[in-house]
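Field: COMPLEX_INPUT
Field: COMPONENT_COUNT = two
Field: RESIDUE_TOTAL = 1733
Field: MODE = joint
Values follow.
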Amino acid sequence: MKKPIQKTMQDTLFLFPKFHLKTNLVLLFFLTASIFGYANEIHTNIPTNLNTIPSNTTTLVSNVQQEIKGTVKDDEGTPLLGASVIEKGTTNGTQTDFDGNYSIKVSNANAILIISYVGYTPQEVPVKGKTNISISLQLDASALDEVVVMGFGSQKKESVVGSVATIKPSELKIPSSNLTTALAGRLSGVVAYQTSGEPGQNNAEFFVRGVASFNGQNGPLILIDGVELTVDDLARLQPDDIESFSVLKDPTTTAIYGARGANGIILVTTKTGIKGKAMVSLRYENSYSAPVSLIKLADPVTHMRLQNEADRTRGLFPTFTEEKIAGTARGGNPNIYPAINWFDELFNDWAGSTRLNLNVRGGGEKVRYYVAGGLSSDNGLLKVDKTNNFTNNISLKQYLLRSNINIDLHKNTEMIVRLHSTIDDYRGPLQGGNAIYNAAVRTSPVRFPAVIDPGNDPKLQGVPHITFGNDLGPRLGGFGDDGAVWYNPYAELQRGYRDYRRQLSLVQLEFKQDLASILPGLTARFLGNANTTSSFENRRSYRPYFYRISTFDAATEDYTLVRTAEGDESLELDRGETINNSVLYMELAADYTKTFAKKHTVSGLVAFTGREFLDGNASTVQLSLPSRNISLAGRFNYDYDNRYFVETNFGYNGSERFAKENRFGFFPSFGVGWLVSNEAFFKSETISRLKFRASFGWVGNDQIGNNRQDRFFYLSEVDINAGGRGYTFGRDLNSGINGVSISRYANPLVTWETAEKANIGVDLNLFNDAVQFRADVFQDNRSNILQTRADIPTTLGLQTSIQTNVGEVELQGVDASLDINHYFSEDFWLTGRATFVYSDNEYTVYEEPDFAQIGAPWRSNIGNNVSTSQGYIAERLFVDDEEALNSPTQFGTPGIDYGGGDIKYKDLNGDGTITTLDRAAIGKPYVPKITYGFGLSAGYKRLDVSLFFQGLGETSFFINPNSTGPFINSIGNGFDIRGGNGLLSENGLLQAYADDHWSEDNKNVYALWPRLSTNPIENNQQTSTWWLRDGSFLRLKQVEIGFDLLKGLEDKIQLTRLRLYVTGSNLLTWSTFKLWDPELKGNGLNYPLQRTINVGLQVGF
Amino acid sequence: MKIKIIKTLANIALIVMAASCSKYVDVVPDNIAVIEDAFETRDSAERFLATLYGYLPPVNGINYPALAAGDEIAVNDNVSRNWAATSIARGGQSKVNPRLSYWGTGSVTNLFIALRDCNIFLDNVDKPFDITEFEKTKWIAEAKVLKAYYHFYLMRMYGPIPIIDQNLEVSSGVDAVRVSRDPVDEVANYIVELIDEAMPNLPIVVADQASELGRMTAPIAAAIKARTLVTVASPLFNGNSDYASFLDKEGNELISTTFDAEKWTRAATATKEAIDMAEEAGHFLYKFLEAPANWSDTTVTKLSIRGSISERWNEEIVWGASGNTVSTLQNWSQAKIALDLSAETRESVQSYWNAPIRIAEMFYSENGVPIDEDLNYDYANRFDVSVADAAHKHYLKTGFTTANLNMHREPRFYASLGFDGGIWFGHGVTDDDNALMVNAKKGERTGKTDANRWGLCGYWPKKLVYYENVQQGTSSGYSTRAYPFPLVRLADLYLLYAEALNESGQTGQAIPWIDLIRERAGLDGVVNSWATASNNPTKPSTQAGLRDIIQDERMIELVFEGQRFWDLRRWKRASEFLNSNIRAWNAEGETTEDYYKVITVGSYKFLNKDYLWPISETDIIANTNLIQNPGW
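Field: COMPLEX_OUTPUT
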């Protein structure tokens, strides 16, 4: 019987995706066996381990027999088919059936069962007289230990010579509908942080091993089931649907992508069907979220007193009368004496969201399927006014459908059909949540109420619309809008809403053909893919009616209103952005693996791909042209006796972006590996695996410049009918002629960025793989970085700057991961994981003036990290005007534009004025040098608990002195929340600034905030160390407590899984920065990150 | 066998693939617009020409330094604190972030872009297949004049500049693109050369007025040439010893330090040529002619003065900025005088464009001489108040108590300024006996009612406001009739000519040209006026005396037109004028007593380095051949 099975195996091997190799060996065994009609015997008698256990050992050796029954499941509750159950120290064994059930007769009551399954940590269970032993196996931390998904295929893990980070998909389960927010700290080598908590806008920024360029796209190439998709598409993946998630980091693994691979690759594959009865898994989660932290603002009376102080100290008339301050202090009529907490007016305390995920997996003889549906609904924190009959709170509903079907067309041919669609259905405020959050801080608390009560005003009794508050006020700069003067964020929030729907639809067809008949070991594969992303947006809004107090009788507190802006009540439509793009992709690959003379294994692959991206809604001719990529990629591996490994990869790509001569590029790489622990001389009880790896190669990045806008560097771009560029003539001043504008000058020499990468790594497993450690040292020397020419003077008169490939950056770093898996007993297990990445870089070539020659060597960028800012060095605040007059000139006229209490800068070159030559690199990089995370999970009987901490280190950011500057109108200074129509705002006063600022009574030259002002002080708004803050933090990112409700009830309930769990995220943060959540960095006024409490239920049957 | 077939097939596939690959990624069709396409047809070439006009610096708002960065205008702090122009006026110019720069980094417009585009146009204008020879010649001439004007504009601000005669290739070497600055005299000669080439090919008047008025004509070209030559003959650039050490890297003077009288003669010739050409084109000093019989002469004289600017395309306008029309500025300058404004509609004019008391003092007395020279004018008590009599009812509200400063002044005073108690004719009222007036005390309709829309000093530049503009009591707000801002008008040329004649030693011949201006302003001639009213009766007979008179006349006649700012600089008198306090009537005053107090509301500051704009430090660092202006 043995022989025919082996033969069939070889024939059928190719049918299955390689990463399932061992699983499928088992499956195959069953399959073939059942064909031969032995299925029933196999069920009970055939042990699993094909290598060690002869398939005919079905006899039981012992005399005192005891029958034990039970079920084996994975950590998700899915029954494991074909898990092996062996009595320790014997050859007695069995396998689980379709439902994960087994039954075994053991020799005595003190026997120990070894239960194992490929990819899971084996477990030893003492029988101790029990007759029912059911168990959940934990996924091995390196679940894909045996095979690793790589570009265009997969590879045996032990033969990998490069650097690949993998993660159990279940670790990506977080109480959020955005997968990108789970990456930080969980994958070694991934640098990530999140700067907004707004549903739909909360993608984290993430980079593989940091940022090695200062131009263009720095994010990794994202491939889902082999097809390039966007960050948004990655964000919407459901962890439940993910089969494998790997990050390719080093030259051998990325070079195969040639000019697309320099920034690393994220490779995700989705689950496929497996033969067996339909297994349904359902997850339902309900979460409640509230901001991690809110900015504390000063109370209204303090606000007014300090605003008056700000006026007086700068020689202006005080804004508020004592009468108004007193009225507010005694809590006078809130329409006359508004004291608004805009956070309360605009936001609720918490928001809820719901997620539902359902999948069905199974299959028969010829067809296997995985079908999943998902639904999530996230809500924002915005308040909805009852008077409006529409809601404008953020509501993001995401629908997801996935269907992966594998069909065996023939014994040598498999067809896979993948259909996938995600839909985002969004409703939200016109300007987005970030703008509204900003406005809560950037609106005066005392100018006007959100809505002004008509009171006894006879002409406004029964007014049918919302009487939004406003005030008479100063108007800066332009004129023309006779309407509201002040930006009323509540009115902005309530006056309309925005809907958009975004849909990704993907159709994929793959054929796999075994060509063993031509050459044993040869397989071929074809993949065709079409996906479209479409999105449209509708904005509906009305013009609000604004009122302000007209007359007020202090005695009776009667007042009348005056309408400051005419509105209307009917909604008007404004079509928003429309996205409509389509991608066609095809891939043709051949794969060959063969072992010669037992010791020499040779494998290789060649893949040919073509991809076309079309923008169906392009605004210019150049944008409407297709983006195309074509590539030939290859890999060759050789290993000798599983001890020595050699690998070479290459990518040869072309894209339409560059001039003919520069269109195609060749990117080779080489790697070697030595698996020391497989050497005969290596004998160690503790070290179960020791491997050294090294690789070197070249990879490219063609996503330079402003991506699609900047595609054709070799062509000039001209608008020969540009509105706004011409001139108007004629007697009636109305004969306008459009002009010509040049947005690019041709430069045929521009080409891709090249990365020269090297990687050296070590893998070390201890204690029978219970501890797994891997570390890599890496280097990425990026050259040909597109840079704006610095030595082209403005007198050349170019309408736009010239860019060429001149910059170079060197990046170095270390990443490491440590995994621990241990079963203390059948009921008690522990797993832990820690990751760490340190990545630093520096400009090595950067075109800039010869600063050393000008006597300002500190101005040079060479040697600095690319995300470190240059700025002035703030010494302290000026003691008084006198000191400002006698110090080097700064910004504006000393004594008039700045003086005592304003920031004093260091005159680095000592020329008596503070100029750009006094700027130097300050602080740490914006992109953190260190990203780390560590977590521990433990299970005891029904209970499982996990903790995960995450942190960033070696990073800094700047407080924005404009957006947080008390009392200033930051709309007129670059902050534009409503299309620039000149509405006024007056920033609120942060409590921290109220408590600690320079004032004439308290001339603290190290105060947090300089001398107050109601106008922006140019001198204080410079980028300087004054505003620099440490961005490092450590946070308790996630805690989960789960409870298995099913345990012990298996026989009574027809379920395979019933688990209830509670998850908390962003629970605690440690940081030296206190004004807001440090992860928001300089965007502290944005929609804050959320602290979430989540309750979930998992059901499987 | 099988393997062989596969190999062959694979080989074929590879060859086909290789060939189709390079095609696959060649996505760009032939007809993509590149720079050359701008010159394919006449129409697209004309758009390129319009682009060149489009670079004309704005002259109607706060980005034009000559309006708000000098001492003619003062705007309340709440509004103007962050204006670049205000910063300049207060001495806050900076080389790190040059305010209102027109050169390079951080500019309002980098005029070197304009110059490059002028050259692109000149290099390619012969390409359109359907352009006629006549049109081509005319367009070349227009482009050359624009190129000359942009050189002039930069020279006036920066002094020596690199002459951009030909474009440098984008791929030129670093040494080639690091241009250096050419001496002012060379720049001026280059400008003259360009204009001399262009002038014969320009029309005297625009033929198609409906659609082309505003385009270059021979009189405009001649006027630019005249202004250029006057500028380089003036003290700032002619024999200015302050610039003795302002040398290029070879040690050549960038601004001449030895006075050359010949430059004035050359300027006089060019100015006369410009005047002759303008008159040939039909330009004359504007007078309001359509007045109904019942309007007083006073009213008509005022309208003649106001209309010389604000009457759209009036005959005096030699060059009007057709693409830069004045409407916003009228809104800013309009005093709130309408009677029936509600709180809402009152806000429809900004009303904060104001002139300091110094400008009010500048105007002559009713006898046509400066008030501090007038024997009959009580200069010492000018800040006291009196009651206006009925004899001046078209100037002042009869019976109204106002400052003596506002009484017994020349018609241009009343035509140019709106002030408390002053009559503001027009604004929807057609009966000059019942004209509207200004009531500027706090709480009154013209006065300060909110924090921003109020005049800081109490003098509104009425001259800039077309007399028919109306601020309405309904929500439609303020209706304006836009007019092209006058870049060159005949009065300006007359005064330039008078100045050039006087400076080149022909003092006597200068006076008739001044008198032409005074006649329109309702004043007696210079000689007579001084002889009868001045405490210095022989002042017009000396070159220095007449220089004073011409400069005063120029500042009065061209007030609020953005000339004073440049004139004070070229006369080297800016430091004398621009280090002073800003004086104003007390806008917080609610009573006559409180209002008519002269208060200081700010100060102007000017250092010698401010005569020339700083070049951005970034540009100086990038081009090691550039020399920064002295003092920066």
